[in-house]
Fold this sequence. Notes:
single chain; mainly beta; Porin; eight-stranded antiparallel beta barrel; 11 strands
Amino acid sequence: MKYLTRITLPLLTLLVVAVAASTASAQHTLGVFGGVGSASMRPYPKKEMKSIFPIINAGISWRYYSLPRYVGAVGIDIEFLGRGFQYGHTYTSLGLDENGVEQREYHFYKRNIKSIMVPIVWQPHVYLAKNHVRLYMEAALTFSYNFGGDFSYEIKSDAGKYDWRLERDNRWNYGLAGGGGFALLFGRYEVGFRARYYFGYADILKNSNKYYDNGIDGPENPFYYNPLKSPLDNMTFNITFAYRFNKEGFDEWFYKPKREKRQKKNFNFSESSTGAKTR
């Protein structure tokens, strides 16, 4: 809990300051969201893996809506995001198939990871139905902090709280995210749906060059030696709710670009470059 407090309090303060700084123009919204999704890991070298579903996430979001010439909205989210993976650490052979390939039934190790995720979001969008429907896409740079979790085995009794260790585990992660959704506007309120994919770049486990010998590990780490790469991915589906601070609506609803004046002067092709008329 102390890790969660250390991370979320400064971020919430930053979000409140950002909202307060833009209150004069009031071209922003403050919202909440929540939903479910899946979590997985992309180890290298490749191993037998499968996703965890469902995974819960929830958070708050702030968006600033600029004029069209700046293309869309920018903002920041602070969310609790469940992460994790399932690794086939052992298997039972089912014999050979008709092509002589061994068929296996894998037994999985499952690890759940709790994290605080902070996406910095760019959100291009369009309005439809007289500004009552907003369609948008998202691209985000993400930073996260992992502060807890547990583990369990499919066919073994070993289970419990995951023991985080500095020499083996990375608490800080970063990556990219992308997605899209829609919102229905009712007065100063928005209700909508969003899908987002989180693509991790940092590894959750320190690679085998830094942490090779797992002989001192307990059942919390099933790998004989850590993979060289172990980034985490997530897919989330959220219901969103937001409040618009500007009662009159966003400036971009009423913005009309100025028309360029037509060139009235025409070039006279009957005159030469020296100004003399041609016959």
